[in-house]
Give the backbone structure.
Amino acid sequence: MAAQETRVVTKFLRERTDDSWTFDAARTHNKAYSALEKAMGMEPAALIDEVTKSGLRGRGGAGFGTGQKWSFLPKDVFPRYLAVNADEGEPATFKDHMLIEKDPHQIVEGSIITSYAIQAHHAFIYLRGEFALGADRLQAAVDDAYANGFLGKNILGSGYDLDLIVHRGAGCYIAGDETGLLSSLEGERAMPRIKPPFPAVQGLYAAPTIVNNVETMSTVPHIVREGGEWYAGMGVNKSTGTRIFSVSGNVERPGNYEIELGVTFRELIDDLAGGVSGGKKLGFFIPGGASSPWLRAEHLDEPLDMDRAAELGTMLGSGAIMVFDETIDPVLVAWRIAKFFAHESCGKCTPCREGSGWLEKVLYRMANGLGRPDDLDLLMGFGNTISPGVTWPPGMTTICQLGPSTMSPTLSLNKYWGEEIRARLAKDADRRTTLQVASA
Amino acid sequence: MTFTDTERRRAEELVARYPHSKSALLPLLHMAQDRDGYVTTDAMEDIADLLGLTPALVLGTCSFYTMFKREPIGKLVVSVCTNVSCLVNGGPALVEALRTKYADDHDVHVEEVECIAACDQAPVMQVNYEFHGPVTSESATDLIEQYKSGALKARTISGSPT
Amino acid sequence: MSANAVPMSQWPSDHRYTIPVAGDQDMVTVTIDDKVVQVPRGQLLIAAAQEHGTYIPRFCWHERMKPVGMCRMCLVEVEGMRGLQISCATPVVDGMVVRTESAPVKAAQDGVLEMLLINHPLDCPVCDRGGECPLQDQTLAFGPGESRYVEEKRHFAKPIPISDLVMLDRERCIQCGRCTRFAAEIAGDALIDFGGRGGHTEVITYPDEPFSSYFSGNTVQICPVGALTAKPYRFRARPWDLDSVETSCQACAVGCRGALDSTSNRLVRLLGVDSEPVNHGWLCDKGRYGYEWVHSEARVRAPGLRRGMELEVTSWPQALDAAAAALRRVRDEHGPGAIGVLGGARGTNEDAYAWARFAKGVLRTDNVDAQLADGLPADVVLGMPRATIADLDRARAIVLLGPDLKEELPVLALRVRRAAVDLGVPLIDVAARDHGLTSSAAHVIRHAPGVVQEAVDQVASIIDGITGDGPVVVVLGRPSVAEPAAATIHAASQLAKSHGARFLSALRRGNVHGALDLGLAPGFLPGRVSLDAGRDHLSATWGGTPDATGFDATGILRAAANGTIKALVLVGCDLLTDFPDRALAREALSAVERVVCVGAFPDDSAERADVFLPTGVWGEQAGTTTNLEGRVSVLRRKITPEGRTMEGWRIAAELAARLGSDWDLETVEEVQDEIAQAAPAFAGVDAALLRRARDGVVLPLADHLDEVTFVPATPGAGVSWEPLRPAADEVGNGEVAAPPAPAVALHTWSMEAPAPAAAPRDSYALRVIAARTLYGNDRVTSESPSLARLATSDARLLVSARDRDRIGVEDGTVVRVTSPRASVELPIHVDRSTPEGFAFLATNRDGAGASDLIDLDAPVTDVRVETLS
Ligand SMILES: Cc1cc2nc3c(=O)[nH]c(=O)nc-3n(C[C@H](O)[C@H](O)[C@H](O)COP(=O)(O)O)c2cc1C
Ligand code: SF4
Ligand code: FES
């Protein structure tokens, strides 16, 4: 039987496509804020326990245990802050975008519950600047929440106060990194910061801060409503529950699919997304956003399980699955991703700042038939400075993960097409006379 | 142009939302760009003044973010994605076509952008941050013309509602 | 707004990286490359390794700034931690095992260098840094031989001026952020920042707003490549031609330690040296580039004797004979009291001592004053309970009761800022107008000039609310010369009595504290003793002392104007620009019969000189100088003076000999030894001790023995962009004999200071605040071409926008400004720092201005402003 979606977080927005984002629809047809009502009757510590029990792991990319992260807050240190990461910038990821535009109340509710659980009185939703409609809808949702007593002073008569601010970014991928986000929220260049101290210890305004992804927040109300055990009952191994995967590229039905973890790549790509478009054969696919190393047809029957992905030398990352048919040149894709990282490197660390540009230049000439015989080895060589060993999980010489992520495509090229590419470069060199590669 | 009294009040409101005033920097830059179509030097000086920062710091932050334009770029900013999912679905050709078409049109600024999180609609275009996709160069041109004529209501250069 | 948010001033830093504070005794054991060492818990690995002789290469880390971890050069292996760690942001923990030279570390360093060089222009032969460039050195030491990068490098327009002093070459920049962090973290004026992103990151200034920081030169010094260069130094020298000595800056009384470089007998550069108790390696730009005035064409380089209207060049014997004869005649005819000696606050301690001995021991006049009515009474300065600069770091609170430190004592302002911003010491700013430290203050108290009682009450109650066991440190000076010091001193006396406050003097002139300590003040003798207390002791060495207490500078000039004083000896001071009441100075100069000028420049007062005796200056003269905390440190001679000048102390000795007193002093060390014998506060501070004390000696030595590091100050040590401390075994043995106790009890201030009478306010008038700015018409600025460009020489009246509007004129309009004393015409300008009802006038300006309007007798100076029809 063909695989099915398991809709938890996306159930409502799929049901009421015309008005799911409005307060009235969400409240009447989706029991919006009922989880909050329940949460307010619970102790903050009990909420953290429930979320820990659910096994929920962050949906932003790193997959860190959400309850565990909350429990890292140093005792008795206040104020504390919640920053919701709505900066969705990882290439080919578009699930948060949908949640923001289609079900903002679910995010707001999750954020209020989380703030209460961690005893924060200020929460921020750091929203990707380019999400204009999302900004309107999210702001409207927040306004409605205030108007209905779910935000502001003395929420639902509990004596608990919370202010929630929708904060728009302004075009910059690195603001999605949790410490980059905090720098940006403080009005600075969104430069990531040295860890430790981790944000939970010293984050926004030097105070303990929890950073969580939009999808993570959207899941929280369901866990509160139905219980941690219920959630943990779904999924596979330590990848509990459901997750939304954004499938795009050369597929028949690109889109967001919420599945129970443990479903295979083949089921997701073929059954749900309709398979490779135009009846072509699969070339390769990227399982977790541009930062993740690639997989190929031989991996299609592997389950969507975060730990299994790690064993395969990659990650489910942001939940973005990019599918490429057999006609797509992997070098071209590698170059385009390198271009992305070169554009988005914040410039703080030498290896990333200089190396990302160098990568892009070399991959550009390789993708355009102007490569030099040793180019792949050159990449693997200086790539060592960016990510020692050029392996996965990556060695790091930089502050944040962006640095080593720049090597993922090269690592994949070398792993799957090393010989082919070297042969091709030898041919390029024969054709090449003088070389003037302009930076693209 | 510098802040009017109403704008200054609105700016002060923005500042007051945050535990620390400097956090209002990005919102204030958006506000300035909404008003002027780009971030003017006057605006940066005003903001610096309001937040007690040096203008150099305001510029330093402003220049880090691609949505902030520091010179006039016209009325419409057309963002075309060419990142991988759009790459394999015609993004690069689309951006080329639009660039050629609007090369001499000072009202329309066509730029190639990184993934804007709508890959299921590849190739995607935003006009003043309103999403459209999938588009062809014809349908894209048609949309842009509708924005130009007012048949479609455009957001500001910063994507705020008008 | 949440009330309990952590105040920004207490965030650990720009990147909020907290380093655990190390307790003194809390040592941990760390193994660095197989060497087992004890280091303070929480110290950064890079610093701990360096102190134990292991140099880990780095570009972005600077020991006076918080780590940012940008360059990634300092990677090391730490056992038990995955991957490589940056040693600049890794605090040590007990049992840590570190490798700094393993193969993975080497590979990483090679790699980072390769990355740094791919976009670097490699224009070393034409780069000022060539030869002393960390990037060059580390490439040689750690780097790869050849580049694998064949693409086009990043291009920028080559070097662009970002201020009148600094040039920026963005192609050479390696984005370490040292300059931008210095500007934001240390100087607190972020006029530069990074702009752009990723590979396009560049250092920027705001359009039309240059990097006009008073501290800009520090960024050039700490730039690890040649991206920032100083215009005054560009292409002047190659490092291998330079030769350097360690000395103290005398541009103001902070006395920053620096390394002075010359080539071909010309001074070309002063670099800050990291002295923990004084300047942390920083200098202000005036100190850094002020060496240029030494080579000014305008200097007097031969003695001069008046013949009619002209000062004619003459020989030293003739000039000295003439000066001695003139003084002898006045003394013999009118008594010692008919001679006044003014100035001496800009020379060495040895000069000051010699002039004091000459005036008081030979001429026997007590009409001696090194201050020119712009300071504080010697009674207070010499007798107040003192604080050191380092006390600021551990103070319970710091109270500012003086001038704008940023304008007058710039590097002290950095230290106060650091205490307030980084160390969380509450800073209480008591002043009439906003100034350079106001934004760092926890409490801002504003008062009208001359009216401080209410402010002091507020300060007292604020301090009562602060717990802590450090001292309350009051930075005490003259907030304005348009009012007498009485109100400020009254306030100080109250804080001394109520809170046991200790004081840091904020007097400005390079060696004013040395001059006062060595007796250039009425009523005092060398070594912080009063005339009466020290008479017997000093007479024993000198053969005599004055009979009666003399006048201060104002008294001397009044006596000169009314004919009681007939002769003036002016030692390195220009009454017409330095004295706050110009009319009185002019009157005095024209009334006296004889003027002997000792100095370096033919200033306005010199037009009245009968004899001009040219002295050597800073850089040409060896000796010692005393900074504002009473720290005596060594000044070294770097170049041979051009022309025929003589050291100040030798001139005094020559004059004394001609008046029948042979001192038998041949070398500066002999003068130092005599001071150690004769001047009670200097007990034990002889030439031998001074040579060995790395950071100088704070007087009295007995109270500060534990603060002195007895290491010979190595020339040029610690000047490079990364100060290397001497290894433990190079440190001299710390033993020093207990210092002898002073022969005479040192003077103490009684702390009795009456409140001044309140001056009634005329609501139509503006009350004047008059003070100096860093750059003005002073000689250091005007005779140093690089600094002269920065000075605004015209006087202007600064008022609040409301006052300007009330007067009804545009900015820049010339108005008539009338005080009870005089009426002058000045352009008016709006100034944000000046509150309504007040007017600010800079005193160091050419032309008519503050010193015409001020009446030294009046408790305040009020002016009326009228438009010119
Ligand atoms: C370069 C970089 C970009 C990132 N971008 C995003 C993003 O756009 N959205 C997001 O939620 N997390 C992003 N992350 C992950 C965040 O750092 C962080 O792990 C996440 O927001 C935590 O939330 P979670 O625990 O709920 O997943 C990014 C991380 C890196 C290193
Ligand atoms: S790895 Fe790259 S993006 Fe991340 S902090 Fe370093 S330079 Fe910035
Ligand atoms: S990263 Fe440690 S010195 Fe630069």
In short: The two ends of chain B are 20 Å apart (CA to CA).
